[in-house]
Specification:
Strand order of the largest sheet: 3-4-5
Order of helices and strands: HEHHEEEEH
Radius of gyration: 16 Å
Helix content: 40-55%
Strand content: 15-25%
Number of domains: 2
Largest sheet: 3 strands, antiparallel
Length: 110
């Protein structure tokens, strides 16, 4: 309801393929990967269904965690999952980098 009140758009990070690759790189057992991916798909489907139900506009957009949202260069991971751009100096925790991409999308539209 708050999203409707603020006339906000829900941006759903389209991470399915990248998430699968990262799980494979971590060498997790295949049954664990299947379970995690199944739950991720289920969550995204439920989120999409709720957005439709309440009339909240939404779209799928790739929000990167390894690409700099300022200059587009590849980010390097330092200790404690902190991502740093060697080109422009951008620095943020890996889990926050997609938020900077979302803000960049917002500024382009409004």
């Amino acid at each position: 309801m708050k999203a409707l009140g603020y006339r906000a758009m829900l941006v759903i990070d389209d991470v399915i393929e990248e998430s699968r690759r990262e799980l494979l790189e971590e060498k997790l057992p295949s049954d664990v990967i299947k379970l995690l991916m199944s739950n991720l798909k289920r969550f995204v489907h439920q989120l999409e269904t709720l957005a439709q139900w309440y009339g909240v506009p939404y779209r799928f957009e790739r929000l990167y965690s390894t690409v700099c949202p300022v200059c587009g260069s590849k980010l390097v991971q330092e200790d404690d999952r902190v991502m740093v751009c060697g080109n422009c100096g951008f620095k943020a925790p890996r889990d926050m980098v997609p938020m900077y991409w979302a803000l960049k999308l917002q500024s382009r539209q409004g």
